[in-house]
Design a protein that fits this description.
Keywords: Membrane, Transmembrane, Transmembrane helix. This protein is mainly α and 121 residues long. The longest helix has 22 residues. The N and C termini lie far apart (45 Å).
């Protein structure tokens, strides 16, 4: 996945960490970092000023992916596709992690058993 168990805590560790996942695209590392920082800033502003809390950290990552896709058009012609590819890769990995880390989904037969449990009370 994304190696979140060894997440970076400095800018230099970020560059080493991102190089492990996107080697050869050092021109867009700063764009990715900017997208993450901007998404965190917006989430903080929404929480502070609008009292809208984030439900999960995945919201920040999906917001960063949207920024990356939008900003891809501002890149050099050779880097547009790489930026879009990086955003898609991040989005796909986060979707997989959301399925793994999210709350367990209830099955249809769980709802049918609820009525019987409440009748016992």
């Amino acid at each position: 996945m994304l190696g979140t168990n060894c997440g970076p805590n400095s800018i230099w560790k970020f560059y080493a960490w991102i190089h492990a996942f996107l080697p050869g695209f050092s021109e867009i590392y700063a764009v990715g970092l900017t997208a993450i920082c901007w998404a965190i800033w917006l989430a903080r502003n929404r929480a502070t000023f609008e009292k809208k809390w984030i439900n999960t950290p995945f919201e920040i990552v999906f917001t960063a992916c949207a920024f990356l896709k939008y900003w891809a058009g501002l890149q050099k012609p050779g880097m547009i596709e790489a930026t879009k590819k990086g955003a898609e890769m991040l989005k796909e990995n986060e979707s997989e992690m959301l399925l793994l880390c999210g709350p367990p989904m209830r099955e249809a037969n769980d709802h049918a058993n609820e009525g019987g449990e409440w009748e016992k009370w």
